[in-house]
User: Which sequence fits this backbone?
């Protein structure tokens, strides 16, 4: 079962540490099955409850996964092996279409906003005991949420979207709980769940967002939470339509206890409308626990580590309580910078959404000319199903294009590659499409769809 390796330890912490070190050293490989509780307890001469406690520690740390009667095994990708490691080194001669970054040329200048934030700090320094969030920033965010039909809720500021999701999961769920997530989906989120000891339940999606039947199946399988990207889904570019949002609300109405997290990180870079799952046209939530998150990373720049979320009072209060225990608050210099940018350039900088749409559509059109189906109705990326990811990635790299293998985003979904088009000149799209067609050998033949 474990080959030549023998687990050591007398206490639960010693056993867990031994397994974790073996995984880190490569002595235990992803996918390897661990001995049954009683078998390992007999071998170590300890009580089975000690081994059970060790396995719980390993599961909580994201090192192993447990599948009922099938036993426990090393996770296919332990949390110590984060998905960014899948990315290739990009030669200086290659076009980097793998990073997932916005176009720096489309980001608003920060100097004036930072100067205004600094001047405000000079006039009134933020000291201990200061409110955690800037009231004017919350007011602007609340206006935006209200305009998009989001229910009235409590508000909070976090250090980005992932920080918000991390804190909500930590305060609302327990290790072993199942979370329904998009597949393919955001790689950082796929890493975050096992770090909390949470079980991902993959949910298939199409260009309109998560498929209702897949969400229904996940809820029936015991999902305690559902995380959905409203627009600019990473990596597929999917965007919720009004019809799809209504279908998903109908599913959640049958499971009102499920925690819903809506990640609208595409706010400001897409001109497609926002559709919430938390509530319908009457603004009444269909579930008891929910939050909608909007970050500044794509519109203002990834280094402006800031997001604003709204949600029902208990979820937001728990998040704020957790925040007070560690960072305390997000720097008011950052909050005031974001506030100044919202005042001067708006939450959606002019021309940005149109520029990204032109680049996506140029590539999708060029791919279609070779019979290759791509996906990307919004956001910075185009997702292209391919039969073999490694062959596609290496073949494109040899032709001067660096893209991301789909393994960084997938659990059970079919293979593919992600192309970040944020800095792709539309005039380059025909050459990229022709190179991919040559790599795939599919000129005139349709590639597999999601």
Assistant:
């Amino acid at each position: 079962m474990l080959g030549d390796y023998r687990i050591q330890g007398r206490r639960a912490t010693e056993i867990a540490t031994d397994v974790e070190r073996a995984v880190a050293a490569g002595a235990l490989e992803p996918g390897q099955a661990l001995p049954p509780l009683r078998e390992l307890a007999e071998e170590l001469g300890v009580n089975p409850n000690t081994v059970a406690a060790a396995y719980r520690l390993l599961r909580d740390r994201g090192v192993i996964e447990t599948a009922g009667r099938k036993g426990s095994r090393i996770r296919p990708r332990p949390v110590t092996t984060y998905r960014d490691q899948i990315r290739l080194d990009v030669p200086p001669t290659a076009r980097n279409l793998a990073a997932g970054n916005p176009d720096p040329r489309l980001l608003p200048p920060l100097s004036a906003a930072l100067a205004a934030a600094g001047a405000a700090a000079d006039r009134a320094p933020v000291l201990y005991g200061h409110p955690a969030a800037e009231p004017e920033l919350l007011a602007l965010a609340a206006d935006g949420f209200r305009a998009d039909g989001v229910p009235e809720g409590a508000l909070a500021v976090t250090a980005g979207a992932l920080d918000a999701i991390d804190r909500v999961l930590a305060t609302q769920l327990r290790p072993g709980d199942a979370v329904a997530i998009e597949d393919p989906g955001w790689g950082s989120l796929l890493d975050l769940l096992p770090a909390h000891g949470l079980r991902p339940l993959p949910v298939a999606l199409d260009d309109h967002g998560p498929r209702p039947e897949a969400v229904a199946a996940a809820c029936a399988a015991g999902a305690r939470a559902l995380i959905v990207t409203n627009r600019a889904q990473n990596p597929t570019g999917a965007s919720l339509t009004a019809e799809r949002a209504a279908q998903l609300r109908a599913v959640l109405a049958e499971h009102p206890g499920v925690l819903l997290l809506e990640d609208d990180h595409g706010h400001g870079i897409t001109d497609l409308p926002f559709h919430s799952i938390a509530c319908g046209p009457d603004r009444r939530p269909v579930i008891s626990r929910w939050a909608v998150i909007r970050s500044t990373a794509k519109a203002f720049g990834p280094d402006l580590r800031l997001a604003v979320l709204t949600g029902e009072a208990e979820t937001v209060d728990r998040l704020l309580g957790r925040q007070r225990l560690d960072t305390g608050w997000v720097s008011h210099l950052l909050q005031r910078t974001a506030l100044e940018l919202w005042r001067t350039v708006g939450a959606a900088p002019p021309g940005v959404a149109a520029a990204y749409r032109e680049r996506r559509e140029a590539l999708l059109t060029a791919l279609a000319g070779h019979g290759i189906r791509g996906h990307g109705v919004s956001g910075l990326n185009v997702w292209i199903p391919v039969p073999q990811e490694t062959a596609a990635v290496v073949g494109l790299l040899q032709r001067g294009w660096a893209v991301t293998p789909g393994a960084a985003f997938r659990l059970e979904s079919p293979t593919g590659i992600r192309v970040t088009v944020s800095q792709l000149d539309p005039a380059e799209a025909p050459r990229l499409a022709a190179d991919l067609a040559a790599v795939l050998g599919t000129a005139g033949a349709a590639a597999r769809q999601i």
Summary: DSSP finds 15 helices and 15 strands in the chain.
